[in-house]
Amino acid sequence: MSVLDLARAEIRALQPYSSARMEASGGQLLLNANESAWAPTGDGGTGCNRYPEPQPAALVDALARLYGVRREQVLVGRGSDEAIDLLVRAFCRAGRDTILIQPPTFGMYAVCARIQDAGVIEAPLRRDFTLDMGATLAAVTSAVKLVFVCTPNNPAGSVVPRADIERLARALAGRALLVVDEAYVEFADEGSVADLLDRYDNLAVLRTLSKAWALAGARVGSLLAHPDVVALLRRIMPPYPLPLPSVNAALLALSGWGQANARAHIDIVRAERVRLRAALAGLPGVRAVLPSQANFLTVRFDDAGAAYQRLFEAGIVVRDVRRYPGLDDALRITIGTPAENERVLAVLADRSMARGAA
Description:
The chain has helices at 9-12, 20-23, 57-67, 79-91, 108-115, 133-138, 162-172, 227-236, 244-253, 256-281, 304-313, 338-357, and strands at residues 74-77, 98-101, 119-122, 144-150, 177-181, 203-208, 221-224, 286-289, 296-301, 319-320, 330-334. The chain is an alpha/beta fold. Helix 4 (79-91) crosses helix 5.
């Protein structure tokens, strides 16, 4: 059975749009795409008067090297969000198919499914925010086409062991595509599962340059998957997903200097995660700090609303995650620079002392 048998038949049969860049490459005088012959004001030689490559070859090659996969296993798009949306549209028939998620988790999986009028089945994480393998497998029905697993998890920061990912991939073979979201994997002790792609054709991995690579504003993400899945999604992807400035920013970030710089910052975040977790846990009013393998800490408070307001009044914005199941007393705090982390601790300590004085 081919992994494409899981996809919508009408998408497999779709005649994709053929752009000018797809139909012709090379040449010196480009008169095939109705572009302006003049560069925009202040362009600086970037060539923004021309459409970019649909899948920029230099960037695809750089990402393939970075992630240890073949270039035909890489699809580059506008952050992980675009890949999630494309997967749902390609594999889920409106009103008939479903996705499976493990809440609390990243909200865009369910949003994309509901936009497509696909169902959403939930197999909640355990109380300690680890994957409930039995519940997850029991929730898989014949209508489930995509199973999303976020590791490290957002918003809890927990991880799914590699052995569990493999078990899921084996159990879902011929039934559903397993999509592992590794947006925060650079900060984790355990590495990517992208090396399993050649072993399981029903496995896909989401990666992004938004977090560890400091390019949230550039919106560059990747889907790593079987070449047939990549080719299928290109059928329904807009012809020019990545702006040239974003491509150039990504190539600079992935250069030798850029990688060294990013890895130095990752080391700082990992060290600060340990320090900040211990310091937060020692503050009065803090109930617990959840273990995290990401670049954030999720913190339980006696009064999370008051803690949020205190930080906000001091000019510090954190994420209120009280709407997520099992986190009704929690805030998610991104790990910043050492100085920024000290400011968070100082504000929360002031709040604690104020309560004690009262």
